[in-house]
Amino acid sequence: MDKDLRRQFNKNFTPEKYQTLLDKVNTGFGKKSTFRISETPVFIPGDIRHQLKDACDTLTSYLLTDEFKKNCDSAISKIGFEVPNENLNTTFIQFDFGITIDKNGVISPKLIEMQGFPSLYCFQNLLYESYIDAYDLPRDLKPFFDGLNTESYIEYLKKIIVGESKPENVVLLEIEPEKQNTAIDFYGSHQLLGIKVLDLCDLKKDGRHLYYIENGKKIDVEKIYNRVIFDELEKRKDLVTEFDFRDEVDVEWIGHPNWFFKISKYTMPFIHHNPYIPETRFLNTISHIPNDLENYVLKPLFSFSGEGVKFNVTHQDVEQVKDPENWILQEKVHYHAGIETPNPDEPVKFEIRMMHTWEQGAPKPRLINNLIRMSKGEMIGVKYNKDKDWIGASIGLFRE
Description:
The chain is of the alpha/beta class. Helix content is about 30%, strand content about 20%. The strands form five sheets. A five-stranded antiparallel β-sheet has the order 3-2-14-15-16. Strands 5-4-9-10 form a four-stranded parallel β-sheet, with helices on one face.
């Protein structure tokens, strides 16, 4: 990563500045973060930024092909869960890349996962502003793409999510939003966009009409900014709701639920000969289990947040899969521990999420921001980083 900026940051770092960062994050939206915030942003050098942008361009180009449209439709038939009134295109796309190093020492991004689903668009703006203010970083360091800055970024989100509607007629829909790990982003969406954060159980239905009750008054729902993850919805048999996602209703989806399945790990085996994608195959297409399973990761297709992923795969793991058509075997990538920390024996590796939006009817998606997760452990994730510092949620900064 950018060695000069890293050296300067580490030299000037103090625990007091980090506490200032946490105070800004935890008070910015009136909600404390439930996940760990890293001590540092990641300073992305120009060559890595260029590779990331190129990787995103090649992937979005595939999403425009007839081949993708044919293959993604089969994802819906496979799961047997289809929500009516699908938009022309997804509103949100995330590409998650590991920054890797090969046996020749070449550093490059490799796609770990893709999602046709929203991410922490509002929180990342708060995190950026908090890093800049807490550490007095130069303002020409930005996380945004395509000429955006803080002000134009927020206005653009309003255009995508709220549009011509009144904010009160747009709801961010989630199951028990207060209890979610991403609740801080929901608070931010309300604060920055003015929209209502609504529990799925509080969404009311009258024929094709959706509404919620606010201070004893019926408020029409015109648009749903969907944050419900279907893994959780399927597990929560205790929920009592008036609205079923398969109902025919008069509402516009901002992030239609079908795209959660259509743009996902399910898409990756169909993309061939792409230097940014590790070899990925549907498990049911593999005639012989590889002898070098230590070089692979076993993943369920339609899970979220790493649920069910097996990093240290055994023959028994593969043989015990009862529905191999719903799993992939993916070539394991080796993360580059390229971020120096105050402890020279504990450098940090990271994944970067390239966050896109796609206006309905626009010719292609737009890359607008990024999100980073840092790790000192074997893999990315909380369970690999217990009692560690300089890990957790972060953001990539670069100069245009």
